[in-house]
Amino acid sequence: MVLAFLITWSCSSAQPIDPNACWQTIKHPPHECLESIKRIFHGHVHGIKKECCETVSTISDLCWPIIFPSMPYIRFLLKGICTVKYSLH
Fold this sequence. Notes:
single chain, Prolamin-like domain, signal, Prolamin-like
């Protein structure tokens, strides 16, 4: 298990993350991804647009705890929804 961690861990993930950069990634217009994600919390799963899914796929795993500190698994939920809906990986 430690070997798997060492293989998948990269130097870039060890770098400190700028919280402002994380927020700008998800708030960046024109797709207003943050609003689409908030609607998912109210059961509107089908409202997430492809552009937002593309943004979700580019957000660093280190940014998710900054953006949603009380929801550690939100990135997996969103990536799953986007994979099913738009076949994005």
